[in-house]
Amino acid sequence: MEYLTVALAKGRLAKDTMKRLRAAGMADAVDMDSRKLVFRDEIDEIEYLLVKPIDVVTYVNKGVADIGVVGKDIILEQDLDVYELLDLQFGKCAFAVAGFPGTELYGPKKVLKIACKYPNITKKYFAGKREIETIYLNGSVELAPLMNMSDCIVDLVETGSTLKENGLVVLEKMFDIQAKIIGNRTSYQFCYDKIQNFIKAVESEVNDNVTDYLWE
C-alpha cells in the first residue's frame, strides 16, 4: 500500500491548516497537540508528518514528503526546488522593513544594518538597491533597533500591533505572503493522481473561505 506523505507545519499555521483539511474530510487522525510526529489515515492512504515550519520545504525537496503545507516566507528563505501547487488563502501577512519613524533606508549612510530572521530574503530584496549588513536574530527582532544594534528590521507583519507597541512603524512594504501547498517534483510525476485528489479536496474549501489581509 503506497501512502501519500504530507508534511504539516506546526506553529502559527497549524490551526488553520487543520481547519481546512478537516473541512475537506481529511486528517481526522492527526492530533496537533500530541507528541507523536507521524499519523496514518488508513482509509484515505495518507501519512501526515508534523514538523517545524522551517523543515517542511526540506522534507518535500528531499522526497521524504510528497507534498507539504508551509508559509511562502519559508519557501522564499529556503529557496529549494519545489512546486508551488496551491495558495491556501490563510496565514496572510506581509514582509516589511520597519524601524523608527523617519529612518532613511536609502540615505547617505554607507551600510544599513538590518536585523532579521530571514537573511536570504533580506539580501535578495536589497540587492542592487544599497549596501546592507544583516544581523540574524531568532527571537524578537523588534528589540534590535531599540538597543541601537540595527538601523531597522525586516520581518513578517500581520496586524502591526507589535511594531506599534515598541515605537516602530512600517518603512517599506516588501511583498505579501500566505500559506501554500508545495510538492516534490518527482512525486508530482509519479503520484500525480493522489496529489491532484488532495489538491482538489482542499481547493474546494479554500474557495469558500477566502480571508483578507489584516493590514495595508
Structural features, described:
This protein is α/β, with parallel strands linked by helices. It folds into 2 domains: 4-91 and 178-206, Periplasmic binding protein-like II (D-Maltodextrin-Binding Protein, domain 2); 93-175, D-Maltodextrin-Binding Protein, domain 2 (3-Layer(aba) Sandwich), CATH 3.40.190. The protein has 8 helices and 11 strands. It has helices at residues 14-23, 53-61, 72-78, 119-126, 143-146, 161-165, 185-190, 192-206; strands spanning 4-9, 38-41, 46-51, 67-71, 83-87, 93-99, 112-116, 132-136, 152-157, 169-177, 179-183. The chain has a 6-stranded mixed beta sheet with strand order 2-3-1-4-11-5, sandwiched between helices. Strands 8-7-9-6-10 form a 5-stranded mixed beta sheet, with helices on one face. Strand 2 and strand 3 form a beta hairpin. The longest helix is centred in the last third of the chain and has 15 residues, at 192-206. The termini are far apart. The relative contact order is 0.21.
Helices and strands in order:
Blueprint: E1 4-9, H1 14-23, E2 38-41, E3 46-51, H2 53-61, E4 67-71, H3 72-78, E5 83-87, E6 93-99, E7 112-116, H4 119-126, E8 132-136, H5 143-146, E9 152-157, H6 161-165, E10 169-177, E11 179-183, H7 185-190, H8 192-206
Parallel strand pairs: 1-3, 1-4, 7-8, 7-9
Antiparallel strand pairs: 2-3, 4-11, 5-11, 6-9, 6-10
